[in-house]
TrEMBL record:
The keyword Plastid does not apply. Coiled coil: none annotated. It comes from the Bacteria. Residues 5-344 form the FAD dependent oxidoreductase domain. The keyword Magnesium does not apply. InterPro entries: FAD-dep_OxRdtase, FAD/NAD-bd_sf. It is an enzyme of class 1 (oxidoreductase). GO terms for molecular function: oxidoreductase activity. This is FAD-dependent oxidoreductase. It comes from Acerihabitans sp. KWT182. SUPFAM superfamilies: FAD/NAD(P)-binding domain.
């Protein structure tokens, strides 16, 4: 018979998994450390619905994005924003792919790609941009997605406990005993299975439980939110694959997100063993938030001069976590560690922003 299941982490991955397990007949409780669900990495990102274009050096990641794209569009159509044109531009400067390579890569993964119209080509500095392609890629409204997921979990009788942290797990009889801290103190809950879906906090639970850590790389990142000039209001632009910056609609704020591969990460650190662990939430809370906006825009306007008219509004700060091997090819595999060290403890981490 189905039993009790604990999902640790109320991000999109955790909520989606909780709904899936509930549909299968399990009694599911989600524990979220923050005051609301889907307000950390699920909100503080580019809000891009990936269609594979981002990964010319990782065919597997690109193909996985291509498979997921239409499914996400169908399932969450009410929060998908598609009323803008999207362009990928290949740089002439320090790019790791050429325009021809990018075009053939799109053909290989079955992603729509054609040459951009003249009015878009006139926007760029031809000394810095080699090729421009019109593609199909969308954005999503994170707040609408959150409301959709909350509604779906309510309909499945999934219990969501906010301001609640699962601090430790231990084997107990034929399952797992989880220790939970909240405003009312500390208590324990028994479960057949615990799914650790806490992204940048994955190793927090392992460390507190005296379990081996999973090697992970963390980056403290800044995504700027900006007002763009009228000519860019209904455009999304990504310049790759060396400079790699993006200006994308960010529907939740009616602004555009602005990110840059060199300046969005402010610093990084590793979890690689029990001697090298730093609580990423503590690091996030202690962060001195000094924006790198002026450096982002100074570089980006060399490629697209009209970007100098962007008006900075605010920044989204977050800890981005990836597998260390992703540095080699920009791949973004999903981490899945079933029965990690103890039966019933499963670690899952989505690999994309």
């Amino acid at each position: 018979m189905p039993g009790e299941i604990i999902v640790v982490g109320g991000g999109f991955f955790g909520l989606y998994l909780a709904e899936y397990l509930s549909i299968k007949g399990y009694h599911v409780t989600v524990y979220e450390q923050s005051a609301n669900v889907m307000m950390r990495a699920s909100y503080n990102n580019q809000a891009r619905v990936h269609n594979g274009y981002h990964y010319p050096r990782s065919i597997l990641t690109a193909l996985r994005s291509r498979v997921s794209f239409p499914r996400f569009i169908r399932e969450f159509k009410d929060c998908v924003i598609s009323d803008f044109d999207k362009y990928y531009m290949v740089s002439k400067v320090i790019s790791k792919v050429t325009g021809d390579q990018f075009f053939h890569f799109c053909e290989r993964i079955g992603a729509n790609c054609c040459l951009a119209p003249e009015n878009i080509r006139k926007m760029v500095n031809p000394n810095y941009i080699e090729s421009i392609f019109s593609v199909v890629e969308y954005a999503f409204d994170s707040l609408k997605l959150r409301e959709i997921m909350i509604g779906r979990l309510v309909s499945q009788n999934v219990k969501i406990c906010k301001n609640s942290t699962v601090t430790k797990v231990q084997s107990y009889q034929d399952g797992i005993l989880a220790t939970i801290t909240c405003g009312n103190g500390e208590y324990q809950a028994f479960s057949k299975h615990v799914f650790n879906c806490t992204y940048a906090h994955t190793n927090y639970l392992l460390k507190n439980s005296s379990l081996p850590l999973i090697p992970l790389k963390h980056e403290m990142t800044e995504i700027c939110l900006v007002d763009v000039p009228d000519e860019l209001k209904h455009l999304g632009i990504t310049v790759m694959c060396g400079p790699f910056f993006s200006v994308m609609p960010f529907p939740s704020e009616h602004l555009h997100s602005f990110s840059h591969v060199r300046y969005t990460p402010h610093f990084e650190w590793m979890d690689d063993d029990n001697k090298n662990y730093t609580d990423s939430y503590v690091k996030y809370a202690d962060l001195q938030r000094n924006t790198a906006w002026k450096y982002m825009i100074r570089d980006a306007q060399r490629y697209i001069p009209i970007l100098q008219e962007c008006q900075y509004r605010k920044s989204l700060w977050e800890v981005k976590t990836v597998l260390p091997l992703s540095d080699r090819d920009d791949s973004r595999p999903i981490l899945f560690k079933p029965n990690f060290v103890m039966n019933g403890l499963h670690c899952i981490m989505g690999g994309e922003d």
